[in-house]
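Quick question about two entries, pasted in order.
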Amino acid sequence: MANQSPNGIPSTNNQFNSITRQAKTEPFDLQVARGQIYGHSVLNIYGYQTAVGTSFVPVWEGNTSYTFPSSAIQMHLVSSVNTGADITSLITINGLDANYNQISETIKLNGTTAVTTVKSYFRINSMTVTSGAPTGNITLKDTSDTTLYAEIAAGNGRTLMGIYTVPAGYTFYLSRIDINTSLNANPAGFATYQNYQTNSAGVSSVTVVAPFTNNYHTQRVMPRLVSEKTDIQLQAKVSTGTAALTVSQEGYLISNGS
């Protein structure tokens, strides 16, 4: 039985209908975002840093060059605060195992006492707060607590790291890049962005280098292919001093069997 909702949206048995449910068409992007295309998903890579300097580094919380694990390892998760939600909140870690397969787990914080991951990670792609509202900086390091692999800055709720590794069995198709800085179109100061990639054979390449002042935007007509097991680093530097910089990269993660 079909009827009409007060705002004019068609419904069946009091269930609102989308265009897809009505057997019409929707834009392909929307179908992917809704999980309606088998083997396809939207991938957004975000990075933010308040003080990018004059040397190329990935845009992430660490504000240094990034060291990937040389083998799959267990890691330590810890907060900088030892009270309240920083003892009870849950953190979800998303990464890859030794074979570049996707793995994840959810861990309860224990304040400033490190909690060891159950799984061993070869790559870390993101961390997210999935319950609670921790107030400290949450870091993920090796079990000797010397190398930082990911961080959720206080109040952000997730990592903002311009670093991502394409899982085994998938290809990433890059469609859009946006970068913004705190620079104010000063001719004496500008930023430069580069997309730095390394494949599983250890071969590195820079796919784009772009100087800009306030912001940089590119919308690719044909998405750029990034193969499985490729490390992506969205890197930036400024010509003088330091500047805040945010970068976002959007595209499709598609199963190679699709």
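Here is the second entry:
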Amino acid sequence: MPTPQASGSFLASAAERRPPPLSLFRSRTAAALEIFLGFVLIEAAIWNGGHLVPWAWLALGWIAASTLTAGFAFRELGLAGRNFRPALWVAGAGLMLAAGIIALGALAGTLHLYGNHGHPAPRGVLYLAWALAQELILQSFFFLRFERILNSGKKAVWAAGLLFFLAHVPNPVLLIAAAITGPLLCELFRRYRNLYPLAIAHGLVGLALAAAIPDSIHHQMKVGMAYFHWH
């Protein structure tokens, strides 16, 4: 398989961005079923109120089992460190955007610590880890399967981006952010196949939004039933 040119092109080669071929044991129907069950379990966790944890474990278990048996290589999943340096600008752009959001929050007088209890530093680290988990689910699970089903990375960008948007209902702040960043993150993954810079940018911007926008608006970044239960 061709590799990026030695000139350090920011984009992976066209051959590298082609959808992976369907294996003998992985039909489009199987991939569609995996997407359907994965999203249903995620939505069940989000909307089940006090029973979030059992449904969340079911969703994560299904996604993990499906990913481990799908036959994707680490480089296809975005976990191998491939194209990290060419994609590092994404993390830098996320840092600059986060700094701008923080500055606007400071000017508006709405800047506050993320969360209402516990030390902010470990909570921030946990949020960055959660951002990586979200990127893993969005890209390595949903995007790759849509790419197989649609036989098009560009179409998969919008299909996976739509699910990312729907997963943030009804939070108005996160819906706006997801509508913009969902397709953008998927397109960057399509080009670079590396989760780490995307997760860093995702986490930094998310923390900035949480700190710059009043909790009364984003309800501490809650989605689903938890958004309505926040007080």
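Reply: The first helix runs from residue 28 to 47. The mean pLDDT is 88. Hope that helps.
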